[in-house]
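Reopening this one. Same input as before:
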Amino acid sequence: MAVSYPRDNKEDRAMRPTPAAYHQATAYDRRAMAPHSLDWAHQPSPYKSYPVREGVSLPDTPHLPTVNLQTVYHADRPQASAAPDLLALSQICLMAAGLTARSPHGSDYFYYRSAPSAGALYPNEIYLAALNDNALPAGIYHVGVHDRFLTRIRGNAGLSQLRATVPDLPADAAAVFLVSGIFFRSAWKYRQRAYRYVLLDAGHLAENLRLAVAAAGYPGRLHLDFDDRALDDLLGLDETREGTLCLVSMTGEGLANRPPGPPATVLSPSILAASRVSPAEIAYREIAVIHEAAKTVQATRQPVPAMVDVLGCSLPEGFGPLPAAAEPPDALGCADAVLRRRSKRNFVRKPLALDQLTWLLDLLCRAGRDPIARASVAVGFLAGQVDGLTPGFYLLDAAKRQMGLVWPGQAMEAMATVCLDQAWLKNAAVHFIFMSRLDRLGDQWGARAYRYAMISAGRLGHAVYLGTSALALGSCGIGAFYDDEAHRLLRLAPGAALLYLVAAGSVRKES
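Same output, byte for byte:
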């Protein structure tokens, strides 16, 4: 069945392919919410499948790394130099997107994963480029999160093209994990706004991958700039339905020691057809326009300032130093925090200890130190119930490890109203908020800046998820809110926008 498009309208014709334009075109307004019912008969499949099952099964993982979160986030920790084996790759895949819980769904079960997803729709897929023959035959594989099977899409033909496709790929890269997004999985529920969630979810998944690589003892690096079309072709994606969004590389005897191989061959049409996840898909023009425009990597020669410096929020008393944050003695290790992480909404009105908040802020500082995250996202938080801290809106300068009060006041209930009247949000102790000036980013980096901002917001939000999981607290990400109301509540400057919110605090113990 052919992909169908909604009828043309003024919003479609007027939309410009810029980050600010897409964000505004998909803003929620409580006075203009179009009715929408879910087409359950054509719900997208949560798993991608291929017509030919050829590849390698991932081995069981009898143990996982015991390293703690602060150590994993430490940039200068010792790293392994040998190439990863299949067990290491299996551990990484399990931590990145392993099945961690299930609930009844009709006559079967629905499975949740180690990385969160808006609406539990899981729009992202993982692919693995094995660049040497140490762990498995060199080639391109699809990672089946449900059956722990690596489906081989290509042999070594085309692997040498990765160097030109990903300019900053390390010379000794041994493996590359590639994260894609299947747009209709999220658009089935969220329609035009779905690109936001696909990118946020990709950020969560990429951070899980990056931390899993580090926990296994390997240098890992996030890549956001590459030749989209070349990579989509290499992975066998139908680019009208699925696109590569980001990469995580791990080093250890890789491309530098590999002779140039043959060029990539043309894949079977059945491989491209695997990007279709429903017989009745709708391709929204807003998503197609921004994603197509974002395929262009626009370099800038000008220094890009930190987003916290250009957001437009004034701090009457300025920034003050963030207290030192020691690893809580009873905090879960990284692997346990990942596998026990859940999105929880059953918050109870209980103050958060100041040292707990400080530790979460420390993780955010560690997660946000890369140049793209610093330049594209400003981190703040609404403090509602924190021991020893005045309620209000605070801003975090992650690079300088400083925080400051923008304005005082209790705003948790007001933010719950902004977030589509989800009353449970008012009971959280803190709302972490991730903001940006999308107009400025668009001028600097073009449409691709939207990926930078939203994926970075997802990554930073994931640090909160893992930190609260390690502390036996609860957290839940919110991408659905009335955009203009959020702007007014936070008193943001013109051009600034809320991208994402993660609520955190104590939750009722499950019986």
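So the earlier flakiness isn't reproducible anymore. For the record, Residues 1-10 have pLDDT under 50 and may be disordered.
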